[in-house]
Amino acid sequence: MSTATESPTSALTNNGDWKSQLNIPQKDDRPQTEDVTATKGLEWEDMQLRRELLMGIFEAGFEKPSPIQEEAIPVALTTRDVLARAKNGTGKTAAFIIPSLQLIDTAIPKVQVMLLVPTRELALQTSQVCKLLGKHLGVNVMVTTGGTTLKDDIMRLSEAVHVLVGTPGRILDLAGKGVADLSKCTIFVMDEADKLLSPEFTPVIEELLGFLPENRQVMLFSATFPMIVKDFKLKHMRSPYEINLMDELTLRGVTQYYAFVEERQKVHCLNTLFSKLQINQSIIFCNSTNRVELLAKKITELGYSCFYSHAKMLQAHRNRVFHDFRNGACRNLVCSDLLTRGIDIQAVNVVINFDFPKNSETYLHRIGRSGRFGHLGLAINLITYEDRFNLYRIEQELGTEIQPIPQTIDKNLYVAPSGGGSSEPQTSTGRLGSQALPPKQDTRLTHRAPQQPRLPPQVQPAPGTPTSQAQQTPQQQQQQQATQVYATTPNGPPRNGLTPVQQQQMLAAQQAQQAQQQQQLFALQQQQQQQQQQQQQQQQRIAQQYQNAQATAMAQQQQAAAMIAAARGQGHPARGGRGGFGRGQPQPR
């Protein structure tokens, strides 16, 4: 069962110098923005929290409360309803988990806190934070989502569970079957509340509230609150305390750029960005699941490590990708909008919108995956001619300005001075030569762009994007050539731990593998041709049998007709021979 660790010994909690005995992680010296530093000066000890809870907070590396935590936690501890709006990555998750853990009575072996989230990945992450902060409290935390067997959840609920984290559909299923007893669940929290109150979730939320007691506490947290949240507040919340820390919508630590490219040049532009930026970890967003897989394949072909994730994958595969990427097993993750909400990976310092989003809400959540908790981040948007109006509209709605990408991006904008990013740009394995690969035109990722479109104001081509030589000045041609030259040569130092000889051996092995695959493909094609020939022969035999049957039936019909005609021609002699009426006259009546 997914449970938190039991409480520590009382000797530690009763010791006056208890804080010095904790396993506190090393202090994060990276600079932070005012999104998390503009506080009132409160300390964790000022909030009258349990000693065991404070121990979990400090061991999680939480040094001081962020602004949203300063505002929300004291109010939530009074059991008043809370409606909080704050930027992505400013500590909203801890703002509702800490008061929820404080109010739990571990002597009651029933669900007392329900945390609803819209996605399975966010449910897993939220449950991990609950276990981390409450590991000294002795609380039991359970996470349940769709895509897993219901039998396992039923077995885990047979034991004591204090905090239930999950997606609405699965929790409603458990409550409807009488497996999850929610009669003592007095704290109801919705993270990413705007998504949970969308039309696809609203009926489930309404039905789920019927299983909770009347004296429940409701808390809603999100970065965006549409009008539908107002309807829910009037219907299900009692004079909630409203918190709005969104003086501006975008994070101050995230620098935003756009690169104007044609659709067929996006992969080449992405390749240039990989070779020039100092990426620690990056998330690349696409607008469809098909393009996610295709782009991940193209990135892998270019020689860069890459994972991908989208909603159509098996849940076990999604969990593995999320876990490995979070632990640093891969540098790049291509995904759909599945991971736009709540996912907190501190190592991500670059977000790339390979496909520009259609609305400002999606854009805001996407770029919020970088610059977590006041740190620095970079957001780059690849803009086509058709995206120019969406770019202008999103700028107006968010009240921000997205600058055209410069030829050189200052690393101090997205790399921490203490070395938060990688020391060198990304390099790909198995690539030889000093010239960049030419832009490959993959029809699956290519759409016909307008010929020489008129650029909107302030739209500049991306660095490294090939344009017509006739339109380029000599200086632009030199800059384009500079972006296509990699930092190392075949005879230079080893790249990714491989010498030029080893790279050639790897290339030869890849070529041999490709030749073997081509032979297998040729054999498969021959087998398919033989099967087609057999099918054609069988069809010919069936057609011949059908023709023979038709000929036999026709002969039988002709023979029967001849017999009938012969019988009619004989007639009776007394009636004048043929016809029996004598000389063709009608028979008198």
Give a written overview of the molecule.
- The strands form 2 sheets. The protein has a 7-stranded parallel beta sheet with strand order 3-4-2-5-6-1-7, sandwiched between helices.
- Helix content is 39%, strand content 11%.
- The protein has 2 domains: 10-244, Rossmann fold (3-Layer(aba) Sandwich), CATH 3.40.50; 254-510, Rossmann fold.
- The N and C termini lie far apart (105 Å).
- The protein has 18 helices and 14 strands.
- Helix 7 (150-157) links the parallel strand 3 and strand 4 (163-166).
- The longest helix is centred in the C-terminal third of the chain and has 71 residues, at 500-570.
- The chain has 589 residues and is an alpha/beta fold.
- Residues 574-583 have a biased composition (Gly residues).
- Residues 1-35, 413-499, 556-589 are annotated as: Disordered.
- Residues 465-490, 556-573 have a biased composition (Low complexity).
Give the gist of this structure.
With 589 residues, the chain is α/β, with parallel strands linked by helices. It is 39% helix and 11% strand.
Number of domains: 2
How far is the N terminus from the C terminus?
Answer: 105 Å
How many strands, what sense, and barrel or not for the largest sheet? 7 strands, parallel
Annotation, overall tally of beta strands: 14
Please bin the fraction of helical residues: 25-40%
Shape: extended
At the fourth level of CATH, the homologous superfamily of the largest domain is P-loop containing nucleotide triphosphate hydrolases
CATH architecture of the largest domain: 3-Layer(aba) Sandwich
The largest beta-sheet arranges its strands as 3-4-2-5-6-1-7
CATH topology-level name of the largest domain? Rossmann fold
Q: Which value, in Å, is the CA radius of gyration?
A: 35 Å
**In percent, how much strand structure appears in the residues?**
5-15%
Biased composition (Pro residues): 453-464
InterPro entries: DEAD/DEAH_box_helicase_dom, Helicase_ATP-bd, Helicase_C-like, P-loop_NTPase, RNA-helicase_DEAD-box_CS, RNA_helicase_DEAD_Q_motif
Biased composition (Gly residues): 574-583
Family: Belongs to the DEAD box helicase family. DDX6/DHH1 subfamily.
